[in-house]
């Protein structure tokens, strides 16, 4: 199984027929069919179901499709990185990101880099921390932005000088919306929608488990992967969701309330310890350090101004 075979397999999957893929690849249909049969014999499984209307991926074929895309992307990145060791800063930078407004800092760092190195491109992939971790370990990204409860000890990392505040996303007609803050006891009888990583580890020791305290528990009514799912579940009355308080959840029917005592999570940009950074990735870290330093200074200044206002009032 080589890269060319995988590319041809993906073409068949995309076209939904061997004939269509053969035309697209400028190959004869018998040659492509023979290559597919050889691949299925090598893997000892059927990758497609055949019918008069074309072919459809089997579960094994769907898995190979996912892995093949990652392998081809990794091969392309490797070629760029090896070439980049003798060239200027250029190529594609891939970052896996959690849904947080702090992503703007990562983009600002790339914007600065791109100003001086225009032959560069940024590709962002959203997901929850567990999804990102799994794909990152398989080589899908140069960097990934992770948060607890994922362990980051196995990576090189830059911990951002900010922490994400947790809140409860509720419907405005929920009695909880009438509270200024929501405490541990308020959640005792509330169906909770948690992120996938949180719901999987709610009883295994993480920030939320510690926040709840010994002897307390919450009822998990559902889980979400990305913020759209959380908003829909809450809006449809399934329960209330534990979310990062990004300040962008407010709608006609939804609102957030902060937790008391406050609960926060770290954010860290990670890269693999066993992987030498390309010139592009190394340059990006330098610009990110500059952006984070500026942002921390601005936030400290804003906090000082707010403290003066509070003192006067």
How are the elements arranged and paired?
Elements: H1 3-15, H2 18-25, H3 29-43, E1 48-51, E2 54-57, H4 59-84, E3 91-97, H5 103-116, E4 120-126, H6 129-137, E5 143-146, E6 155-171, E7 182-183, E8 191-195, H7 196-200, H8 207-212, E9 219-224, H9 227-235, E10 240-244, E11 254-260, E12 264-272, H10 279-312
Parallel strand pairs: 3-4, 3-5, 7-11, 8-9, 8-10
Antiparallel strand pairs: 1-2, 5-12, 6-10, 6-11, 6-12
Helix pairs in contact: 1-2, 1-4, 5-10
Describe what is shown at a glance.
The protein is of the alpha/beta class and 313 residues long. It folds into three domains: 3-68, Arc Repressor Mutant, subunit A (Orthogonal Bundle), CATH 1.10.10.10; 91-161 and 267-304, Periplasmic binding protein-like II (D-Maltodextrin-Binding Protein, domain 2); 163-265, D-Maltodextrin-Binding Protein, domain 2 (3-Layer(aba) Sandwich). It contains ten helices and twelve strands.
